[in-house]
Every structure is written in structure tokens, then in C-alpha cells.
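Late entry, evening session. Most of the bench is empty. Finally got around to the prediction I had been postponing all week. Sequence below, unchanged from the version circulated by S.P.
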Amino acid sequence: MIILYRLYMDSIGAPLWFTCIISIIFVFFVYVAVRSVIGDILKEPVKILHEKGDPSPLFDITNEMLGYKLNSIDRQEILIDHCVALREMGETEKVLELLKSINIDKFPQTSSYIKFIYYNNLSDVYNLLGDYDQAEIWFEKSVAIYNDIKLKKVKN
């Protein structure tokens, strides 16, 4: 596809710099579209979990999505949603193992919103497992991030 695009741009006499700029814009829009699709795919299973208390659809879709080649940020978000489904299924030990494997702090590009959700879930799992000291540590970290979030829309 890229080769065909470059050949077309050459055939109309477009300079290389113009081809590169258009390519970067195209990649950006594809990235935004993929991020939007991931969110849309997860909306219905999350709604079913909240309204009916059934984690199966969320578990199934996140399990399938984790089999795809994803960038680190998308993988983090899907894994966190997968952990939410597992938590509702009573798999707290597995949830803890998976959340700890994410190591969200090594990805500086992770949004504050996702970090808040991650730390809050980690606090919840430690609380369920009876490790109240760890639960408190992660809860305090999630509250600190929540307080740093500027946009009211994001906080809600």
C-alpha cells in the first residue's frame, strides 16, 4: 500500500516532503480511528456488566482482543478491562498477577485517567485479598492522580 501510494505521488510530481507529511497525517488519523473502534467495541460488554452484572461478554471480547497485536497503551487498557471481568468472576489472585504484570509506570505516555483506573483496581484487589496496607498505598496513589486531573469531564 505504501509503495503504491509513493508511486502515485511520484506520478503526479509530488515532492518527497509532501508525501511524508501526508503519510504522517494519514497514520495519525488511522491511529485515532483504531482507538475509537476499541472504545466502541468495549462499550456494550461494559454496559452489560454494569446493568446485568454479567462479566462474560467483557471477558470474552477482551480475551479475544488480547490475542491481537496491539501497541502498549491499547494492550494496557484492554488488560485492565479484562481484569475487571476476572474480578467479577472471583479470580482475584489472577487479577493481581495480571495488574502487576502491566507495570503501568514504565509507560510515560499512559494517560492520567488510565493510571487512576489502574491504581484504583489494584487497590480494590489488594483489599479483597485482605492486604489492607497495600490497598491503602494504591488507593492513595489513585486519589493523588484523580486530584491532578484537570478536566471535570474526565473526572466524571
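Two things to note before I forget:
Residues 16-52 form the longest helix (37 residues).
The chain is about 80% helix and 0% strand.
Will write this up properly tomorrow.
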